[in-house]
Amino acid sequence: MERGIRVTKSVDISDLAGFRAKAAQWLAETAPEHGWLKTPDGSRRRVGAGDHEAVERNRECQRLLFEAGFAGISWPTEYGGQGLSLREQIVFNEEAGAYDLPLVVYIIGLGMCGPTILAAGTEEQKRRYIEPMLRGDEVWCQLFSEPGAGSDVAGLSSKAVLDGDEWVLNGQKVWTSGAHHCEFGIVLARTDVNVPKHKGLTMFILDLRSAGVTVRPIRQIDGGEHFNEVFFDDVRIPAENVLGGVGRGWQTATTTLMNERVSLGAVRPMDDVHSAQALIDLAAEQGLSADESIRARLADLWMRESVVGLLGKRITATILSGRQPGPEGSVAKLVRTDYSNRAAEFGFALAGAAGAAWREGAPQGDSFVNTLLFVPTLSVAGGTDEVLKNIIGERVLGLPKEPQVDRDVPFSELKDR
């Protein structure tokens, strides 16, 4: 498909005002035509295992962004990006925040997998995978966690063995978001059991349509199925699909996880239905604004949301200065998760009976109960709260590390393996 006018040809890189105007005009003209307007309650639809129509809307949205020159704004032009700076990306995100762009299926690919390939991939890998990702042709996921290796990712057991010019992968992953509608993923596997656990890992680019890959959606408490179990039975991966080098999987995975925590903690906009202002408005609608205890909780949430915003701005400033975010990504993710849980609980309480039973077509519908059931997953996704607190304690507060008796022991000698 031929691409449309590229932003780089019509907007000077230093002309942020011109770029903002162009983005605002395109969104204003395109969003109503394609139904990218926010619902009255500001809620966002999550994509489930069988939601083919929603996935196709995501693909169409990403394709239109690509053709208009608003995909990969800060990514290199030789791989399909626009070659601009993160300033332009931030400006576009600010303008897009007023709309409900259906892009949820691309969060992991563009927020985690793509940056990892750009940082650690070969030239051939970048040219093969980045542009189709930006164009929306191929959706990606990341496959790290296992039933016995969640918080301790380095303790994973999925194994890949070299057989000629292919690696043979066996094992299981779990909690893989979006795998049921993905074409590709980045998978972490053990390729050497005779070295300590952090040193025997390798990352691969995996075609999820390969023989031996089985994806099974997991039904969650909110009724959704956006997590999955993924099984590998003698899956053959070409040697050229090694990402970042054999035995360097932990270093490559660290790049992915840093991007994930920044994305979850600072980049993704707050869900409008549980913003502090939305809860203030809801309290007024319920006639509770004069209640001192309600006012105190609203003030507390407003302050916490402000902290989340300030942390996001700090991370943005770090990125714009040319530096990689450090532990502040973990801080932002932890604080945001705490706010989301508090806001969801309080919003449900404010909604009263409407949070548990509602008339069909009601403005807020089931958003309160669904959000209340969904937010506990945020304490696990992208690193559990406990893991993030350890990172903050060690890297921010300078506290001593927890004892690790298995760090220098070959994986094959660990007693629980």
UniProtKB/TrEMBL annotation:
Swiss-Prot/TrEMBL cofactor(s): FAD
Domain Acyl-CoA dehydrogenase/oxidase C-terminal residue range list: 247-397
A molecular function GO annotation: oxidoreductase activity, acting on the CH-CH group of donors
PANTHER family: ACYL-COA DEHYDROGENASE, ACYL-COA DEHYDROGENASE FADE34
Alphabetically ordered keywords of this record: FAD, Flavoprotein, Oxidoreductase
Annotated protein name in UniProt: Acyl-CoA dehydrogenase family protein
Domain Acyl-CoA dehydrogenase/oxidase N-terminal: 53-137
Protein family (similarity comment): Belongs to the acyl-CoA dehydrogenase family.
One Gene Ontology cellular component annotation held by this UniProt entry: plasma membrane
Residues in Acyl-CoA oxidase/dehydrogenase middle domain copies: 141-235
